[in-house]
Design brief:
With about 500 residues, the protein is of the alpha/beta class. It has 13 helices and 24 strands. The two termini are about 30 Å apart. One of its GO terms (molecular function) is hydrolase activity, hydrolyzing O-glycosyl compounds.
């Protein structure tokens, strides 16, 4: 989609099969209430006492293979079997270790480094591995040495061919101030290669909830939605899922609401960095109309510059102006980052801005929006473990998941419940974050095939703890006609709206 000259991409997802879950409204609400986070004084005290990890510097030298030195070395074979080339999972480069039936065991070792830590210190070890052929066995070893003493910490894995896999484990040192070295051993039944990237070993210590706004970790409920469930100052519902839309090119949805006879529960809008005035006016109007504003911004500087604080003044001005709005607002920065640049810098940008926005605006929920497909089925560099902000509070994880039937003339439909709602809801539960669809849609042929897809999908999302189902009612940068342009699609959308909660006016 492109709004006001700002290019925003669409990714339509292709899968197989259809599974639509239909639950009575009361049952869906009951499931959602059961999944809602507790807000008792005991729960609040428990969250405030929460600890989080603080990591030390990386003890593995040149673990990303981006520099020519210091070099990693082979242990039992010719150094020619170890090459450094392009195609890393975390950076531009990676190491390649070649093996064969004649040379079935190949070992590569990092340069050693002193670990400034006492005996019993926790150390988090991580390395990405990839095998070229099935059957390759990989052993990852963190070695501690001090004088003649040697201690090993071992993990053995069988990587999926041609797919990056992160090997991670936490150990406690057995020696004081040891020299540490990471070794990777590949066993080959025939000719093949083992690829390595992103090797690290970092000390880990826990701090008791060092946060910029600990009082905001668990927000109290401040009002009641139309379905009888409560909602927080940041707009997070106790149960149920807001249903709404991105309408046109940030167009006023009043006409659509009049046609349907129901107001939107959530409204998505999109802005460039210069659109703060327009965004604030629109969000204020949405709150006055009883809609939850979910707004997305592109940024005034690069991700790296924002991560370094160059955009803090712009962000604070935006947050403080949104804080003056008498109702909740959801905010996202640079949604769908996949393919737009260094996603490591994007993640660091999110980690810097999240606590600041939440501190400067106690009515603003900080949201992070991804495509969904890339995180579950795409490259390892776009996985949730690689992209999700670390050590900061995010209120809502948004995903842009579409019904792909009719896209580009292809009559193949993805099963959004099985392929997306189930794994995403499980991940969100483990992460302690609410989740929802920031965009979704289905084509005219899909509506003819299944005229109740919106209603049933919104119910299935709410039953799994999802908090938003946002339809992309717009023609911008679309690979199919998602617009609510037929009677069947409008009726389906209206049905979903009637069964979803709205904010009070």
């Amino acid at each position: 989609m492109a709004v006001a000259g700002v290019p925003l991409r669409r990714l339509v997802l292709v899968g197989t099969g259809v599974m639509l879950l239909s639950l009575p409204i009361a049952d869906a609400a009951a499931v959602s209430r059961a999944a809602a986070p507790a807000t008792t004084h005991a729960a609040l005290a428990e969250r405030k006492a929460e600890v989080r990890p603080v990591y030390g510097p990386n003890a593995i030298r040149n673990g990303s293979f981006e520099r020519p030195r210091p070099r990693w070395k082979t242990v039992n074979v010719s150094s020619r079997r170890l090459t450094i080339g392009k195609g890393g999972v975390q950076g531009a480069r990676r190491a390649r270790l070649a093996g064969s039936r004649k040379v079935p065991k190949v070992v590569v070792a990092s340069p050693t480094r002193r670990l400034a830590a006492g005996k019993g210190t926790r150390v988090a070890v991580k390395v990405w591995v990839r095998a070229s052929r099935r059957g390759t066995r990989v052993r990852v070893v963190l070695r501690e040495t001090r004088g003649k003493q040697l201690r090993r910490h071992v993990r053995v894995v069988r990587p999926v061919p041609k797919t990056w896999r992160r090997v991670s484990f936490t150990i406690r040192t057995r020696l004081a101030r040891p020299l540490v070295q990471l070794r990777a051993t590949g066993w080959f039944a025939r000719r093949g290669a083992l690829l390595l990237d992103g090797a690290s070993a970092r000390t880990v210590r826990s701090t008791s909830a060092v946060r910029e706004e600990p009082q905001q970790d668990v927000d109290p409920y401040v009002g009641v939605l139309s379905n009888g469930c409560r909602y927080t100052r940041r707009g997070l519902p106790q149960c149920g899922a807001y249903v709404g839309a991105a309408h046109g090119g940030n167009s006023d949805p009043a006409g659509l609401e009049k046609e349907i006879g129901r107001r939107l529960g959530v409204r998505r809008t999109y802005y460039g960095a210069s659109g703060v005035d327009k965004a604030v006016r629109t969000a204020r109007a949405d709150v006055a109309a009883g809609r939850l504003p979910w707004i997305s911004f592109k940024l005034p500087h690069s991700w790296a510059a924002m991560a370094n604080g160059q955009g803090d003044a712009w962000v604070r001005d935006l947050a403080e102006r949104l804080d003056a709005i008498p109702g909740p607002v959801w905010l996202a920065f640079h949604h769908e980052p996949e393919g737009d640049g260094d996603v490591g810098a994007w993640r660091r940008m999110q980690e810097r801005l999240a606590p600041r926005v939440r501190k400067w605006a106690d009515n603003v929920a900080y949201t992070v929006i991804l495509t969904g497909w890339n995180q579950l089925y795409g490259p390892a560099a776009y996985s949730l473990s690689a992209l999700w902000p670390r050590g900061v509070k995010v209120d809502v994880a948004g995903f842009d998941v579409y019904n792909s039937y009719g896209r580009g003339g292809r009559l193949v439909e993805n099963d959004v419940v099985k392929d997306y709602f189930v794994p995403l809801s499980r991940w969100a539960s483990r992460q302690g974050v609410r989740w929802g669809l920031a965009e979704t849609g289905y084509s005219d042929p899909a509506a003819e095939r299944d005229p109740t897809w919106i209603r049933h999908s919104a119910k299935a999302l709410a039953a799994r703890g999802g908090v938003a189902f946002t339809y992309f009612d717009s023609p911008y940068n679309s690979t199919a006609n998602w617009v609510l342009s037929t009677d069947a699609k409008i009726a389906d959308f209206a049905s979903a709206l009637r069964e979803s909660p709205t904010l009070p006016r």
